[in-house]
Amino acid sequence: MSFGSRLSRLVAERGPLCVGIDPHPALLAKWGLADDIAGLERFTLTTVEALAGTVAVIKPQAAFFERFGSKGVAVLEQALAGIREGGALSVVDAKRGDIGSTMAAYADAFAGADSPLAGDAVTVSPFLGFGSLRPLLDLAAANGRGVFVLALTSNPEGAQVQHARGAEGKTVAQSMIDAAAAENAGAQPLGSVGVVVGATVTGLGREHDLSALNGPILSPGIGAQGATAADLKAVFGDAIGNVLPNSSREVLGAGPGVSGLREAAARTVESVRSVLGE
Q1: Which residues are within 8 A (CB) of 26 and not within 5 positions of it... i.e. 6 or more apart?
Q2: Residues with Cβ within 8 Å of residue 206, at least 6 apart in sequence
Q3: pTM for this one?
Q4: 269 pLDDT exceeds 70?
Q5: Where do the domains of the chain lie, and which CATH numbers do they carry?
Q6: What average pLDDT is seen over the chain?
Q7: pLDDT tens column, 95-132
Q8: pLDDT score at 105
Q9: DSSP string, the chain
Q10: Given a cut of 80, is residue 7 above it in pLDDT?
Q11: Long-range contacts (CB closer than 8 Å, 24 or more residues apart) made by 104-113
């Protein structure tokens, strides 16, 4: 089954929410944990225990594991195995991007059939050109995995590249959205090549069109970054049905107890569902 199909089914069952696992030092300290490998493991596995059986998608941020070297990467591998066992889908937030054989190696790592680092999907940076992602797009499709392509991020520096216009007058971001749409053409019920668009991006409808994407829209920014569930309709308009809101600190801050994490995730799901009228 394709990633898009599995995502559609699970969102219908569990609600439209992706929870990030971002074990940065401030959150570890808030949980009373040391900023070391033991703290990382406790934080991560507690989050997986709490949420893998209840939310649709969990997104570990690879950088927070990689900073501890091989032991941290081993914790990431444990997390991905636990997410899979709990029934949620995993998105490895790695934001990789390169060309040729190097991109093919990233594809093996994050979309290979037997790779312990491969989640159900991975985030990628397309700014070496969308075509540079071809090895990953092809391998992910062959193995039923998904890809989320950066398009419109909410950091102020992103506009320098993402809002720049090409010869046809399109923004770079729109070119990436259109390229993703071409990958998803004809897919039912949803394509497996998504885009990342921040929930705090303003003026989206005036400059960019997501109507033909036919794929998921991963939207970080709910909670600590300032966006609310109510902002989603204003930002995404008619594309709201394909939006997968991401919340990290808003949910993780309710730890370290399993019940607190589950309750925070459930509140967020309900707030999104109320906006969508579900």
Answers
A1: none
A2: none
A3: 0.95
A4: yes
A5: 3-276 (3.20.20.70)
A6: 93
A7: 999 999 999 999 999 999 999 999 999 999 999 999 99
A8: 98
A9: --HHHHHHHHHHHH-S-EEEE---HHHHHHTT--SSHHHHHHHHHHHHHHHTTTSSEEEEBHHHHHTTTHHHHHHHHHHHHHHHHHT-EEEEEEEE---HHHHHHHHHHHH-TT-TT--SEEEE--TT-GGGGHHHHHHHHHTT-EEEEEEE-SSGGGHHHHT-B-TTS-BHHHHHHHHHHHHHTT-SS--SEEEEE-TT--SHHHH---TT--S-EEEE-BSTTSB-TTHHHHHHGGGGGGEEEEESHHHHTT-SSHHHHHHHHHHHHHHHHHHHT-
A10: yes
A11: 104/135, 106/135, 106/136, 107/135, 107/136, 107/138, 107/139, 107/140, 108/139, 110/136, 111/136, 111/139, 111/140, 111/143, 111/145, 111/147, 112/139, 112/143, 113/143
Query: For strand 18-21 and strand 193-197, is the pairing parallel, antiparallel, or unpaired?
Result: unpaired
Cα–Cα distance, 45 to 49 (Å, whole number): 6
Contact at 8 Å (CB) between 147 and 140? yes
Amino acid identity of residue 216, one-letter, is P
Go through the chain and tell me how many residues it has.
Answer: 278
Find out whether 69 and 75 touch, Cβ atoms under 8 Å: no
- Token pair, residue 20, equals 């990030």
**What digits encode the pLDDT tens for the residues 36-90?**
999 999 999 999 999 999 999 999 999 999 999 999 999 999 999 999 999 999 9
Active-site residue 170, yes or no? no
Cβ distance 207 to 213 under 8 Å?
no
- pLDDT over 90 at 142, yes or no: yes
Of the residues 30, 95, 170, 233, only one is catalytic, namely 95
pLDDT digits (tens, 9 = 90+) for 218-265: 999 765 556 677 778 777 888 888 999 998 888 999 999 999 999 999
